[in-house]
Amino acid sequence: MAKYINKILNKFSVNNLNPSKTPIDSNIKLEPNKEKARLLLYLALACRLDIVYTTIKLARFASNLGDLYLNAIKRIFRYLKGTINLGIIYSSNATSYI
Predict the structure, then answer these.
(1) Is residue 61 part of a domain?
(2) Cβ pair 24, 72 in contact under 8 A
(3) Which residue of 29, 37, 43, 54 lies most exposed, with the fewest beta carbons within 10 A?
(4) Model confidence pLDDT, tens digit, residues 5-25
(5) Residue 96 falls within a domain, yes or no?
(6) CB 21 within 8 A of CB 68
(7) Which of 50, 42, 58 is nearest to 7 (CA)?
(8) What whole-number distance in Å separates Cα of residue 49 and Cα of residue 28?
(9) What digits encode the pLDDT tens for the residues 30-46?
């Protein structure tokens, strides 16, 4: 997972951003705009449930992103950088509880 996060940070040239302790600023208000961008939906749903809310919130405007959204996406990148070793590990050896 850390390797995948590093790959994303490098791909979008944001590996030099300062880490963030939270994936989104609770004070921003997102509204539609006119530019496009890509999101981190796979990473959010596959192994980083801590960014699902933020990613889904941004995904609503994926076809109409502006600077506010790009900054919110950068915040996710900064959060991932600061929490790069966190995530869910799936194992076939896990004991299940009911």
Answers:
(1) yes
(2) yes
(3) 29
(4) 888 888 888 888 898 888 888
(5) no
(6) no
(7) 42
(8) 21
(9) 665 433 334 667 777 77
Q: How far apart are CA 16 and CA 63, in angstroms?
A: 26
At 51, the amino acid letter reads I
In the chain, the amino acid numbered 24 is I
pTM for this structure? 0.56
Residue ranges making up the domain that contains 77: 2-18+32-82
Q: How far are the Cα atoms of 50, 64, 65, 76, 85 from residue 19, in angstroms, in the given order?
A: 15, 26, 23, 9, 13
In a domain, 75, yes or no: yes
- Choose among 87, 89, 81: nearest CA to 7: 81
Instruction: Write the secondary structure of 5-67 as one string of H (helix), E (strand) and C (coil).
Output: HHHHHHHCCCCCCCCCCCCCCCCCCCCCCCECCCCCHHHHHHCCHHHHHHHHHHHCCCCCECH
